[in-house]
């Protein structure tokens, strides 16, 4: 017997100010819902070129699997390229454990990347 999926991941964008956008997440961030988060947040980054801070409010996340983690890592790269700091706010303990076990906690939730990190050409990387 297959367990029913708990439902779609919901994203609620809330403009904090002209440079900061908060996206409230609720539901499971998993194989079924990860592409929706990637598409939605990528669209928001494109629509707001003056953004400096993108705050993902993770307080409503019920769970996160490896596909969800992959999307969070992709979003961090896309935000860095756009010179936007990605913040993972109100992380549930289970998400912190996942980030810790996978060695991605400091990368995703630590200090924001320097401007040079956002531009591969400035780091000498192709």
Automatic annotation (TrEMBL):
Domain STAS: 10-108
Any matching Pfam family: STAS_2
InterPro entries the record matches: MlaB-like_STAS, STAS_dom, STAS_dom_sf
Protein name: STAS domain-containing protein
């Amino acid at each position: 017997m297959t367990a029913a999926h708990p439902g779609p991941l919901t994203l609620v964008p809330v403009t904090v100010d002209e440079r900061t956008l908060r996206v409230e997440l609720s539901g499971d961030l998993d194989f079924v819902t990860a592409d929706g988060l990637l598409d939605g947040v990528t669209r928001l980054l494109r629509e707001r070129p003056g953004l400096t801070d993108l705050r993902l409010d993770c307080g409503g996340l019920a769970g996160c699997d490896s596909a969800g983690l992959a999307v969070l890592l992709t979003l961090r790269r896309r935000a860095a390229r756009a010179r936007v700091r990605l913040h993972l706010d109100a992380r549930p303990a289970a998400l912190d454990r996942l980030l810790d076990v996978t060695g991605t906690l400091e990368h995703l939730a630590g200090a924001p990347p320097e401007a040079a990190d956002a531009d591969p050409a400035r780091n000498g990387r192709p």
